[in-house]
What does this fold into?
Amino acid sequence: MNPDPLAVLMDTVEGMDVRIAAGGDRTLVRQIIGADAAHMLASVPASARTVLISVQVESRLPTLSRHHPLATLLLLGEDGRAVGMMMVDWPPAGPVTLLDLTLLPGLRRHGRGTRVLTALCGVADRFGRPLRASLFYDDPAQRFLALSGFAMAGSEGTDIVMERPPGPGI
It folds into this structure.
């Protein structure tokens, strides 16, 4: 019997508790998205920022789910508290799509994102699957993904597509 790649991923992220988000996690997910949006929009005038944050909170996951209806939202925890979330579409064949990897702003740049992405790359390699991610054309995460072997593969409107081929299986 083949192991479930998402179950393997949840067991593989070093130093973090990873679980599938459930219906009762809606408030927590909204808080994570809201904190991320507030950080991204910090330089926007307050009168517009509140509206834009609300739009992000209400639309980010539904927009991703519309194009990837079978995607799974995973919550990332550390020491009993939420630190972020990751949304992955792992279809039966073809590339695995990293749709979202969001860490709470105050917890970034301490290796957490690298541990999550390293685990995702390792599981994709184990299952012989390429990875794909779409980002806004000026998203600073491009460099982060490039350090894990992602390369520019094309563009879709204002988004760029980065892909990572599968490495040797474990």
